[in-house]
Amino acid sequence: MIVKILMLVIFFSVMIGVGFYCHSHATDVDGFVLGGRSVGPWLSAFAYGTSYFSAVIFVGYAGQFGWKYGIASTWIGLGNAFLGSMLAWRVLGRRTRVMTQHLDSATMPEFFGSRFQSEPLKIAASFIVFIFMIPYTASLYNGLSRLFGMAFSIDYTVCIFVMAILTGIYVIAGGYMATAINDFIQGIIMLFGIGAVVVAVLRVNGGFLSSLDGLARITDETVSSTPGIFASFFGPDPVNLVGVVILTSLGTWGLPQMVQKFYAIKSEKSITKGTIISTLFAIVVAGGCYFLGGFGRLFSNVINIEEGGYDSIIPAMLSSLSPFLIGLVVILVLSASMSTLSSLVMTSASTLTIDVIKGSIVKKMDDKKQVLVIRILIVVFIAISVVLAIVQYKSSVTFIAQLMGVSWGAMAGAFLAPFLYGLYWKRTSKWGCMASFIFGAGFMIYNMLFRSTLPKLLQSPINAGAFTMLAGLVIVPVFSLITKKPDDKFVEETFSCYDKKIEVHVTSSLED
Question: Which CATH architecture best describes the domain 2-395?
């Protein structure tokens, strides 16, 4: 117990110390929200990766999908690495950095408002973020309850308050730069932690080959009658597995807290290095999480799905580890959750301040007032998420959990297509953008309220979210082509930011 407590004290001390160290970088909006657009490749890549993977992934998704698909759930982690990280950096990174700086936009709603010359679009995007970000934030605490209960026998409410207060301190003190540096530290912990945990858990059953052999001998007639299905290449349900891969991988392209990491990139070299680092990070962390979850059925003798749900799988797998490894797991999940929480509250607070309060409610706000309001709203958002998490835990309310389940699909379904087309296609119109907003958010709300009326494949929030993202890629161009064409002069001026000539070394580009 002393070892575990000491590890936590050191971890929290470093996080808070970094927050106050970065206070000087957080004096204006650009510095507080984007780190002055001067964040290097390692910090950018780790900030992207740690915001991507939280306790929801490690405890919830890894346990649930590992149980359902067996070792094939590893495909989800690989999809996260190559589609959600590598391809996202290659397709979005450079153009996002250039155009958002050209339009002087610090948030995704502000980008939509400036790119499509529409104040209603900016307001609509802000409300979508506000509505669906808070329950997503509240869900981050869920994975901690069982792990802290297992390691320290501490009440869930205490865990929530400690995590929320400490995260709030370093985010409010140091802004984006503090979150980026802490994300790097937390990312290192996650890399070493997941590697050590995977090895330790597999050793419980005699190593990798013995564990794989044991998994191949498990049968579940309610899932499949095929022998060895949980140790097979694509698992018992490849169709729904693809839906999970699409939602959790392509979804990052439309999530404000993820895309905003590209706004702050320092240079071209940062994009190249960041792509590699982010991909490797995702292979280890996401691939390791889902790979570990794939062996969950080997621990069925200590897991009661009916009583504890899927969230009980990973904690049960870890319960027999040494005190040091359990302490490492707790810090690993704390790192994953705090990094994502800091990113979410920063995105929510900055969006509401810059895109709704500034100009619409308060006509004139200088930089100092905006930073002050953002800091106050960070406290408000963290407080609301704490209340929601406690209400969900203490009562039988299921609405919050349902809303959290559709939040990722709603935001990505609404934003992915118009953001992507807005960076690449001059003909993209504000009406195509609005149509995507309405369909993406509307379909996911409908899925939550009237799920039984949908076709069986789309009753799953996972598949519904994947469907909204893919549908948006069709909706935006269709509505853009049948509605009024954007102003040619404005569009040409906007896209001129890509035509600026720069000189580079021959190591970067060969001469013609």
Answer: Up-down Bundle (1.20)
